[in-house]
Structure formats: structure tokens, C-alpha cells
Amino acid sequence: METALTKLVGVRHPVVQTGMGWVAGPRLVSASANAGALGVLASATMTVEELRCAVREVKSRTDAPFGVNLRADAGDARDRVRIIIEEGVRVASFALAPSRALIAELKDAGVVVIPSVGARRHAEKVAAWGADAVIVQGGEGGGHTGEVATTVLLPQVVDAVGIPVVAAGGFFDGRGLVAALAYGAAGVAMGTRFLLTSDSTVPDPVKAQYLAATVKDVTVTTAVDGLPHRMLRTDLVDSLEGAGRTRSFARSVRRAAAFRKLSGLTWPQMIRDGLALKHGRDLSWSQALLAANTPMLLRASMVEGRTDLGVMASGQVAGVIEDLPSCAELVERVMTEAERVLHELCAAGVRASR
């Protein structure tokens, strides 16, 4: 199925595996790429050197195009951009809108730039700055999210920009892909659906909790880092929501110290990142610290399997996912169903015209 996305990045299918911290590592990304989707490596939870090693590992596992996701506001963003360019990575995606200069640097090196956005005005901004495509995530999506549903936000963005738009938030099967195409999207991006595959390195007991969740078990909270964050509701989430300011701040400092040691960042770098996160947002310092060390809460669950100590970012689709296929099986299933649905729609149209 050829779309503007497949032509732009060179993949076989208009499907993107999103860059989820601690989840989208070399194994998942290479499996997604080999399945014909665009696998995206999550770099925010890696040191700069770990990122280079991870990129090279993906390249050793696949010849297919893949991408790297990074935070545009990170203090070492340019170092990470340099690795993307030097290692010949096909796509750079961003969790926050990159600057005009960063987009130009990547494009001059032949890298396709695809920022993720959650509002029409942000899509218009990055398109004007030269982004090649944009991923637009509706409120159904996991992790940091907005209030507008994909079915409302997607057509707004499609009508507003002249570059390919990839739909994210609420997608897990071929029917969703066809629906996104009908809205004018060039493909779909899926996070939770790829997290729940056999190629994902998330511990099996954690996957089991996702599979057991209903749609009502997926909530949006600001208690983790002060920003709307969609995740599975757990006892930890309940305790964070009920904690007082002093207790939250103490927890934030402890987790920030652990993340600093793990990431190799210095305290000044973390403070700068915290200031960047606070900029334009009504965050307390405790919330800014939590935002800076939210990766530690995710790591506890996604790597160590300690759901009692960590959080589990999740899209609402977790409530309707029931199995753990391989990436190859998942992508084939999505595309087969999409082709069938398109055929049935065309046949229905022919019958209606008679």
C-alpha cells in the first residue's frame, strides 16, 4: 500500500512504531523495520554513546529504514542530531517541536524530519519551518497527551498543512488504518500495540497487566509530572495523586538523583532541562523534577517489571488488545485487514451505484 509516507521514508507499509522510552530499543525497532513498518528508536532514555551503540545495533539487524526519536529541548540534542547524521539514520522524530535551525541541519544532511504534535497550531508551525511530515496524536494516545480526540484533531491538521500527516492515538488494527486514510492521513503510528508484541522487551508480567486492563483502567493524570499523562491506573498512581507537596518533592529529588546517575547527566544539565520543561507551563519545582525523572518511573515498570514502583504509559487501546503477536504478524494482520476493508467498501460502493 503506497502512500505519501511510504514514498517519503522508503518503508513498505504506512505504519509507524513510535519511539517509547525503555520500550523502543534495537530489538523492537529492527523487528518493526523488518516487518515493513517504520521503527523508531527512543533515545531520551539513553546516553549519547548508548544511542550510537543502539543505532549501530539496529543497522546490524536490518537494512530497512528506521528513525530515532529525541527531545528537542534536551541539553545534548545537537550531539544526538550529530549521531543521526553521522550514522545515516533515515528519519528524525521529535517528541516536542524542534527549532527551525535543528530542522534545517537535519534536512541539509538528507534526514527526513517528522515531529509529533498534539495541536493544529503546532503542526502549522513545524510545517512552516520545513518539517517533511508530522505525526499528530489525539487524546486517546498513551504518555503525554492532549484533550482533543484523534477523530477531531486529525482532519483539522490534514486540512491545515500541505505535508504528509500520520495519525496516532487509538490505532491498533487495519480498520483504524483505513479510517485514518479516509480522513486524509498518510498512515498510522502505534505505540501501545507495538509494546504488546512478542518482540517487545517489556517483562511478560507487565504485558499481562496491560492485556488484563479494560478501557476504564486507562486514565489521564497530572500527578506524575504536572502534565496530562495517559497511563494504566495503579496503586502508585493513586498514591501520587494523594501525596502532599512535601512528600512529592522528596520523592522527586530521590528519583532525579537516580536518573542523573543512570543517564550521565550533571545536575546543571538536569536543572536546565527542568527549566525548559517549566517554560510556558504552570509547574511547581516538584512537578518539574518529576517531569525530568519520569523516565525512572517508566524504567521501573518497563525494564525492571516493578509496577509497584513505576508507571505504565498506555493508550486507551490497551483495553481492546488481547494478544502478543510478533511485529511481523502484527503488521501483516493490519495490512491484510486494511486491504479487506477497502475491498468491501469499494464493493459496497459499486452495489450502491447500481
Automatic annotation (TrEMBL):
It comes from Streptomyces sporangiiformans. InterPro entries: Aldolase_TIM, NMO. It holds the Pfam family NMO. This is Nitronate monooxygenase. Keywords: Flavoprotein, FMN, Monooxygenase, Oxidoreductase. PANTHER family: 2-NITROPROPANE DIOXYGENASE, 2-NITROPROPANE DIOXYGENASE-LIKE PROTEIN. Coiled coil: none annotated. GO terms for molecular function: nitronate monooxygenase activity.
